[in-house]
Amino acid sequence: MDTEILIVPIIIFLVIVAPIWLVLHYRSKRKVEQGLTEDEFVLLNDLKLQADKMSQRIETLETILDSQAPQWRKSDEGH
């Protein structure tokens, strides 16, 4: 009696859930192996350029603050 209760969910799992699961798994695995698309690569390069510009701006701001308000770094340590 107990095994009859388990047989139906197991059959449903094997017939419906497992094939869908396998298809989705291998599709995502194939997509990862293909690497970046051309659009994703362009976007990644644009983000890198923006990050480089932002880094340069931060360095410039820190240089200005160091010359005009030398104590600015010490006041930030307390917070």
Layout: helices, strands, pairs:
Blueprint: H1 2-34, H2 38-68, H3 72-77
Keywords, separated by commas or semicolons:
single chain, 79 residues, mainly alpha, 89% helix, 0% strand, elongated
Short description:
This protein has about 80 residues and is mainly alpha-helical. Helices cover about 90% and strands about 0% of the residues. It has helices spanning about 1-35, 40-70, 70-75.
Describe this structure as you would to a colleague.
The protein folds into two domains: 1-35; 37-79. With 79 residues, the protein is mainly α. The protein has helices spanning 2-34, 38-68, 72-77.
| Amount of beta strand | under 5%
Subunit arrangement of the protein: single chain
The Rg value, from CA coordinates, equals 28 Å
Number of structural units classed as domains = 2
Helix content: over 70%
What overall geometry do the principal axes of the alpha carbons give? Answer: elongated
Low-confidence runs: none
Number of helices: 3
Let me know the average pLDDT. 89
The secondary-structure element order is HHH
